[in-house]
Design brief:
3 strands; about 25% helix; alpha+beta; 1 helix; single chain
Length: about 45
């Protein structure tokens, strides 16, 4: 199980298994020309 957390705001964007977390991020923040997230993200093992 992992959590994806914002580096600057410490906001927890999503928790769950790895596939679920990255799928959810891709759905919330789709991109075509590179990765566009609101801030740098940390992937933390729980």
């Amino acid at each position: 199980m992992i959590a994806i957390i914002g580096k600057e705001t410490k906001k927890v964007y999503v928790k769950g298994d790895q596939a679920y977390c990255f799928r959810t991020l891709h759905e919330k923040y789709p991109y075509k020309n590179g990765i566009v997230y609101p801030e740098p993200l940390l992937v933390v093992n729980l």
